[in-house]
Amino acid sequence: MENKKVRPNWDAFTGIFSIGFGLIYGGMTYAMPRAAFGNPLDPVYFPMGVAVLSIIVGGILLAKSNIKASIQAWVDLINEDEIKKFDRKRIFYTCLVSIGYALVFDPLGYVISTFMFLFAMLSITSGLSEWKKSAAIALAFSVTVFFIFNTLLAISLPPLPFMG
After folding, report:
1. Model confidence over 98-154: pLDDT tens digits?
2. I want to staple 84 with a disulfide (CB 3.0 to 4.6 A). Which of 45, 80, 124, 139 is the partner?
């Protein structure tokens, strides 16, 4: 008898996520305010199409997936070595820092928010032991790009909060 080893994949979980995303996105799309003139549903068509497409693709992916292979992928993820776990933590921190950057970009302005973002990203990649170099690079980049865009190119970036 042959012992067939299941090759791990994330298809089932990806399908479930895609269906969930489509349902939530579709619900939020349907709750959008209607257009004041013209066809009231015009602003809803494209986002609703994205939601429906996400649900269809998720359903196909879920139907074609092997649940055992997805469970095996989850088990492999839990039991992976410390180097891979550390890499996944850095990816997670990068996602958190990016979300934080998007949230503080307008209130804090380009220079401060970009400095904080770059400093955090450089700290994640090169470690906190290089914090002086990271701070210098982040500050030089933020100020230089702000100067180039605002002064030389006449393209407005969000200013510093106290220079409003």
Report:
1. 999 999 988 898 899 999 999 999 999 888 888 899 999 999 999 999 999 888 888
2. 80
Spatial separation of the C-alpha atoms in residues 44 and 38, rounded to whole Å: 13
**CB-based contact 25:51 (threshold 8 Å):** yes
Shortest CA distance to 121 belongs to which of 145, 139, 138, 104?
Answer: 138
Type of residue at 15: G
Taken in order 117, 121, 123, 124, is the CA torsion positive or negative?
Answer: positive
Enumerate the H helices of 31-159 as residue ranges. Answer: 42-64, 67-78, 82-126, 131-147
Tell me which DSSP letter residue 33 carries. Answer: P
pTM of the model: 0.57
121 Cβ partners below 8 Å, 6+ apart?
Answer: 94, 97
C-alpha separations of 163 from 85, 110, 115, 141 in Å? 43, 12, 17, 20
Question: Residue length, the chain?
Answer: 164
